[in-house]
Amino acid sequence: xxxQELVLLGVVSAGAGIVGSMLGLGGGIFMVPLFTLxxxxxxxxxxxxxxxxxxxxxxxxxxxxxxxxFTNLRLAMLLQVTTAAGATVGAIVxxxxxxRVISAVFAAVLVYAIVSMxxxxxxxxxxAPGPVAPPVPMPGEAGSPPDLPTVPVDxxxxxxxxxxxxxxxxxxxxxxxxxxxxLAGVLSGMLGIxxxxxxxxxxxxxxxxxxxxxxxxxxxxxxxxxxxxATVYYASGEIDPQVVxxxxxxxxxxxxxxxxxxxxxxxxxxxxxxxxxxxxxAISMILQAAAVDVPWAREGTDE
Length: 303
Known about the structure:
The chain has one domain. 68% of the residues lie in helices and 3% in strands. The protein is built from 10 helices and 2 strands; from the N terminus they run H-H-H-H-H-E-E-H-H-H-H-H. The protein has a two-stranded antiparallel ribbon with strand order 1-2. Helix 5 runs parallel beside helix 7 and helix 6 runs antiparallel to helix 7. The radius of gyration is 20 Å and the shape is globular.
């Protein structure tokens, strides 16, 4: 690739990093299709580069989400156990799989994400805005009578301040969420997407975690899954240094911008923006999986 293409690749990666960090998806879900469709990059090299870039996106994006208290660290560490294990298995499968199979799985995941996010948009939010109650002192502590009973608090309960309101929530259906995190890990390893594409809808729809908290928690998690993915692809010789460097630089810039935008944008707008991009990419990947020429794709994407 010449210098002009590498610069353009970095710009596209920055855009993917912005959107990915806003939605907790890690950016890989946008980079892989864009790299293969518009730059003619080998699909597995794109997946390997995406996995490395997602790690950077997670590290940089998480710092902003943590300051905003969107990240639920206890929930993230619980779900991460199955996510990391699944990512290793998925990466091994992805290295050996045919390109059309990868495209078909990619398209199916995109369709799932579109349906899930639209369902989440119609659902009523379960996190009630209001002042966050101060912690109840333990018996014997200053300010608490010795006979005052304490109110049990779920250790996974999170809270943050959003546009002038305090939001408190407690994740539901945690065992199911742990199981789905394993599937997210498999898809992360197979597609180089970080797993956020499954994690965010699962947390927001199934576990009833607010979208911004789900995005912040997912952004923290996807880096760990992508380390496992990148390791497997590197060992298989599927890492192109030029593509990786351009993707890393772009994502590094974009992942610092996305979380700051998240604090100023309404949740519904995030969902609509996400769905619009996903529809375009899903159509492209379906055509690619069916071996149909994609009119807007660059020649040479097929192996």
